[in-house]
Amino acid sequence: MQRFAELLDSLAFQPARNAKLRLITTYLAATPDPDRGYALAALTGTLDLPNAKPALLREFGVQRLGETLFTLSYDYVGDLAETLSLIWDAYVDPDGEAAGSRAGHNRPPPSLGEVVDRLRLTSKRETPQLIERWLDELDATGRWALIKLVTGALRVGVSARLAKQAAADLGSVSIDDVEEVWHGLKPPYKSLFDWLTKGAPRPAVSGTTAVFRPLMLANPLDEAELPTFDPLAYRAEWKWDGIRVQLAAGGEQRRIFTRGGDDATAAFPDIVEAMEFDAVLDGELLVAHPSSGTLAIAPFNDLQQRLNRKTITPKILRDFPAHVRLYDALFLGGEDLRALNFDERRARLESWFGERPRGPFDLSPLIGFATWDELTALRAGARAAEIEGLMLKRADSAYVAGRPKGPWFKWKRAALTADCVLMYAQRGHGKRSSYYSDYTFGCWRGEELVPVGKAYSGFTDEELLRLDKWVRDHTTNRFGPVREVEPGLVLEIAFDAVQRSTRHKSGVAMRFPRVHRIRWDKPHAEADRLDALTRLLPVN
């Protein structure tokens, strides 16, 4: 555990990607099984320790410092793991009359494998005592790492892709080879490391097994480059406003995966019931209603009613029927089609689809065009049709995992912007835990400001310093980690769309908001009014 703590500590203070990669690869090479497998699982977000919740750990802090002092400490530090690791040895008498420190011990700290195995075998009732004992045995850095491990919130600037790249580098193989087998394996990934370091065969994943295959992703289109492309070499289709999914079915297994490989099967029983095929398909998950012999695609807000629900009721299934619009085929009947070009895969998909009725599935239609000007004119109608934009795919492109440069482009509709007034600010996480970097903003409804969204990106580190100082200088009220500020600062917010929201007092919420500009020069009274946003709501 101590070695894992040292890795996390080094990663947190290392901004360079290649240096982070070397740190992880070195750790994986020097650490035995199963510790390195559990470390890789933690870095990639696949380690599940269900009995250790942040609320439990917060209670530890309250027990040591009392509610008020711990809340103030947590607010000042901004990170639960760091706060607890620093105050763990401190004791404050409940009456505030005495302070002291914990007694010493001579037990060795636990290994990473011991932590994971014991937490999985320990009951929810016994988990607090177990974690408390480990926190006693570890130093401040070890405690910090343990808390991050058990809560799943590492926040050390390492993506799952980077961690997998480190594993690939360890075995001198392609990351695509690692991605190909990844979702058929489970922590601590012994068969993976046997292949990477001991010359064992690559873990086998059957073509008909319902496991996730890495998706092919598109790059944003630079419109200045468009005239240099041959329109005859590309195929175009709409970029639908849903959730990218992969349908994988074979034998008795049926799975729905998100673009990141998360299993969403349980949330969509209506789709699973219709997956009577042996195939791995790429598509867009939508909510769609039959309308006069056609399908009416519902707004994204309707799809959100199906997400993150523990129980799917008959009413939910009836009011928000799920539908998948198919883009591509990776496997059909156990045959791997990914090496074929797009036109060949499309022809095979169309042939397969036409064999019999497919229920809540249809094909994303290709858009005919001869020139880029013609396609540009079609794209202009995307917002009115509630479509995100266009996809451009080379006719000769194989289906390649990741985001290769050149074969596929996404040409999204232009962002909307609105001038909003900063209302609340909250501390961030990770390297931003000491700064007020999460901003809630609103628009005017009469003489009242009402919130319409929250953003935490779109500004530089230098701008963050100035924003943080402004928040501290203009605070009018505090609610735990949140500060209310006086009206005065205008943020120009870029966003993709507006949708109705019962969570916001305004009744609306921006979709994908981010700070576009900080309008230090603009009087807050001249910010946009709510009417400007409500006019952008979908007609239906």
Tell me about this structure:
With 540 residues, the chain is α+β, with helices and mostly antiparallel strands. The chain has 3 domains: 2-151, DNA ligase, ATP-dependent, N-terminal domain (DNA ligase i, domain 1), CATH 1.10.3260.10; 219-412, DNA ligase/mRNA capping enzyme (D-amino Acid Aminotransferase, Chain A, domain 1, 2-Layer Sandwich), CATH 3.30.470.30; 416-534, Nucleic acid-binding proteins (OB fold (Dihydrolipoamide Acetyltransferase, E2P), Beta Barrel). 34% of the residues lie in helices and 25% in strands. It has 19 helices and 23 strands. Strands 5, 6, 7, 8, 9, 10 and 11 form a 7-stranded mixed sheet that branches. Strands 15, 16, 17, 18, 19, 20 and 23 form a 7-stranded antiparallel sheet that branches. Helix 4 packs parallel to helix 6 and helix 10 crosses helix 12 (190-198). It starts with a helix and ends in a 6-residue tail after the last helix. Mean pLDDT is 90; it is low at 96-103.
Attribute tags:
alpha+beta, 540 residues, OB fold (Dihydrolipoamide Acetyltransferase, E2P), seven-stranded antiparallel β-sheet, 23 strands, DNA ligase i, domain 1, 19 helices
SSE diagram, text form:
Layout: H1 2-12, H2 17-30, H3 35-44, H4 54-65, H5 67-77, H6 80-87, E1 90-92, E2 99-101, H7 112-121, H8 127-137, H9 140-151, H10 160-171, H11 175-182, H12 190-198, E3 219-220, E4 234-239, E5 243-250, E6 253-258, H13 269-273, E7 279-291, E8 294-297, H14 300-304, H15 314-319, E9 322-332, E10 335-336, H16 342-353, E11 361-363, E12 366-367, H17 372-379, E13 389-394, E14 408-412, E15 416-427, E16 436-445, E17 448-455, H18 461-473, E18 475-479, E19 482-485, E20 490-495, E21 497-500, E22 508-511, E23 514-519, H19 530-534
Parallel strand pairs: 3-14, 9-11
Antiparallel strand pairs: 1-2, 4-12, 4-13, 5-6, 5-7, 7-8, 7-9, 9-10, 13-14, 15-16, 15-19, 15-20, 16-17, 18-19, 20-23, 21-22
